[in-house]
Amino acid sequence: MTKDLELRLIDAPVPAGEVVVKDLAALTTALQELTTRIGRDVVNTPGPGRTMRFMEEFAELRLRAIEPGSTVLRFAKGPADRLDVDLEQHRMAEGRFWEIVEAIRADSRPAWVTDLIAESAGKFVAALRDAAPRASLSDADRRSVEIESSEIHVETWTTPRELTDTVVTARGRLEKVDLRTHEFRVRDDVGHAVDLKHVDDDLPAAHLVGQWVLATGRAVLVSGRLVALDDVTVERLDDPARVFEDHEEMDLDEILASAPGPDPRGGIDLSEDEFVSFLKAACG
Question: What is d(CA 150, CA 131) in angstroms, rounded to the nearest whole number?
Fold first, then answer.
């Protein structure tokens, strides 16, 4: 089931066979996210098929080699320990991936593309533009798709944001502070991030970076999903994990000493006949 995928970076401003580390990280992360989200979208298509976990294994990428020519990144795609079987959902996911690649080349977003897939495609476009002026993608079953990186646009894949008048709150750890743009970001324990735009009293708020905060502001939505708050106030919260940390530690001897032992006066009362019967049963 393993397939090879070749990404060629052409005329990059580095020696042949080399790639800037930040560009490599951006390319591989975006490409993996794109294939994973396409696989998830296929699983959510009505009809019989594989589980989400199986499709994510099928979408897994492994960097196999970095070679000259100009610079070629070779990936292995899919689990290496499964039989080479041809499943309808896999063919559908492959088809949608290459439709996205062709759409990137044409700088045109297909109508069927979800916001999440478009977000990943936009990240891949941005990574391509930074890495090289031209690029190509191919595998053993398809001819190379040539992409003029300098001619494609992240905006093609950007879903419009809707600023509402609804005031909502977001709780999480303040992880980004930019005093120049007055933009912060908060992220909760499950990894959901919300951007904070036009933060009021941003200097005091900046001192809360790394701490838990409550952010309140007008909701900014993308396809109904909260992605940001505007005109924001920020206040400090206690770390929700602290309730599990504020307790005295006890060593083993203290724990055993405080534990109740057997009650010598406890147990059940048996009559003489019941006790004789118990002894007969116990002695066989």
Answer: 10
Beta bridge partners of 65: 74
Give dist(CA 174, CA 183) in Å, integer.
Answer: 11
In Å, how far are 253, 261, 263, 265 from 257, measured between CA atoms? 6, 9, 15, 20
The C-alpha atoms of residue 183 and residue 176 are separated, in whole angstroms, by 8
116: which residues sit within 8 A by CB, 6+ positions away?
37, 41
Please report where in the chains the tokens 């400090």 appear, as a residue. Answer: 236
Residue 216 vs residues 174, 209, 265: alpha-carbon distances, Å: 13, 16, 61
The closest alpha carbon to 60, from 83, 80, 84, 85, belongs to 80
Query: What's the predicted TM-score (pTM) here?
Result: 0.62
CB 141 within 8 Å of CB 182 = no
Q: Each residue of 52-110: pLDDT tens digit?
A: 677 778 889 999 999 998 999 999 988 766 555 557 888 899 999 999 999 999 999 99
- Asked whether 141 and 61 are in contact (CB, 8 A), the reply is no
β-strand partners of 7: 73, 137
CA distance 50 to 87: 9
Amino acid at 213: V
- The Cα 68–Cα 23 span in angstroms is 16
